[in-house]
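Propose amino acids for all 166 sites.
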């Protein structure tokens, strides 16, 4: 009987450690890419100072902002959406549309080569992460459920962007 109790305790302890590890991994955000291997690089302290805690979590730690929390969801003016980390133009307001998901959505980037793509297997899903090709900042994900003719939905964290009116 004692061996059985120890075995159960060991099993429960192992399960608790496994669950804690999984919860930690989920809380850490998306894929891990070397965000220092881009044309615009800064020290961790410089990024933290420039971005502040919320933008830092999104852009440098691949976090996700809460749905419907970004004022950019309601932005209707003509203009350009730039990377909040390095000011590279990423999306045009002409490509923005209402996806109903709670995050700003675009049908296409403003130009080829402005966005990089990485396979993201976090949260038990297989997705394609998007990051700024200039500074490596995490932007969001691209999905194949957007409107015609391209069928793409670039689902972007509002905190990863800055809007520049035309």
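Proposal:
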């Amino acid at each position: 009987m004692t061996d059985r109790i120890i075995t159960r305790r060991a099993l429960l302890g192992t399960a608790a450690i496994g669950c804690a590890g999984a919860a930690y991994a989920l809380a850490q955000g998306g894929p891990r890419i070397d965000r220092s291997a881009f044309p615009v690089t800064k020290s961790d302290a410089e990024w933290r100072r420039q971005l502040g805690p919320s933008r830092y979590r999104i852009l440098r730690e691949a976090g996700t902002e809460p749905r419907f929390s970004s004022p950019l969801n309601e932005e209707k003016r003509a203009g350009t959406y730039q990377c909040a980390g390095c000011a590279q133009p990423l999306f045009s307001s002409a490509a923005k549309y209402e996806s109903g998901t709670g995050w700003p959505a675009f049908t296409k980037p403003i130009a080829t080569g402005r966005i990089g793509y990485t396979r993201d297997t976090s949260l038990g899903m297989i997705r394609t992460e998007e990051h700024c090709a200039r500074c490596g900042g995490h932007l969001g994900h691209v999905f194949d459920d957007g409107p015609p003719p391209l069928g793409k939905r670039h689902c972007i964290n509002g905190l990863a962007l800055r809007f520049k009116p035309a």
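The radius of gyration is 19 Å. The chain is about 25% helix and 25% strand.
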